[in-house]
Amino acid sequence: MAADNCTECGLEEAFPQQIHSYELYPYLKSLVRILSLMFSVPSVCFNAINVLIFCTIGVADSITVCFLYLAVCDLCTMVSLSVGAFFSLFFPLSVPGSHDLATYTFATAQVHGLFSNLASATTTYIALQRRICVAWPFLTRHAFTRNRSLAVLIAITVVLLGCGMPRALTFQVHARAQPKQQRHSDSGRSLF
């Protein structure tokens, strides 16, 4: 049975039946980080090519603005994932309790989450724009201009920044001694 208040207990008390052992945990963390790098580094390259293509074509209409913004958001998402995976793989944090996956992930994933949300909101706006244009082609032909789409994308960015910043600014990691977990931690050493 899981503990009632997980903020006051360690992983062993919160989840007594582990899927894997504490000895296997550093290797699984490294495997996840390597897989993140394997997928994010090529994605950075392809999104950079996308941004270059859209900049070469020019920003003439609404859909080009949206796709360029989506490519930039995806590029920033993958860059933040690559940088986070690289530094956590080769230079891991040696903070007491940093092997607590939920705390560590939340603390390091703020930038990645923001750009992922921006990419999702941009994709939703593109889909909404295309559906409206297909449903009422003659009524909305001039409704979506380049400047209006740019204003909508800036508004989406401001709203998501406004929603995400209080969470990021108020989050704090309190390091406290947890003798049971410290003997199982990887003590901040890299596997490589």
From TrEMBL:
Keywords per UniProt: Membrane, Receptor, Transmembrane, Transmembrane helix
Residues that span the membrane, as ranges: 34-60, 67-91, 111-128, 149-169
Cleaved signal peptide residues: none
Cited Gene3D superfamilies: Rhodopsin 7-helix transmembrane proteins
Name of the protein in question: Chemosensory receptor a
Gene source species: Plakobranchus ocellatus
